[in-house]
Amino acid sequence: MTITEIKTELQQMIEHETDVNVLQAIRTLLRKTSLNPMMREKLTSRATKSEEDIKAGRLFSKEEVITRTNR
């Protein structure tokens, strides 16, 4: 998906969103990432690594996640 396609899709989704909390969360996210290029790079890097892990089958079961979060 191209940047233009993503922006168009986001604009359409935002236009139809009626939950003020969702809109405020989107605004907060965009403000934070646009103000901090390092944060944007960090989030992008994490997302890319996550996608690679998913494709490679490096996943945790529900039980593993619960065990890890309860430590």
Lay out the secondary structure:
Layout: H1 3-16, H2 20-35, H3 37-55, H4 62-69
What does this structure look like?
This protein has 71 residues and is mainly alpha-helical. It has one domain. It is built from four helices and no strands. Helix 2 packs across helix 3.
Distance between the termini: 39 Å
In total, the number of strands is 0
Compute the CA-based radius of gyration.
16 Å
Query: What are the secondary-structure elements, in order, as H or E?
Result: HHHH
Anisotropy-based shape: extended
Can you count the helices? Answer: 4
Are there runs of 5+ residues with pLDDT below 50, and where? none
Largest sheet report: none
Question: Mean of residue pLDDT?
Answer: 88
Structural category: mainly alpha
Oligomer: single chain
How many domains make up the coordinates? 1
- Assess the beta-strand content as a share of residues: under 5%
How much helix, percentage-wise, in residues? over 70%
In short:
This protein is mainly alpha-helical. It contains 4 helices and no strands.
Jot down its keywords.
71 residues; mainly alpha; extended
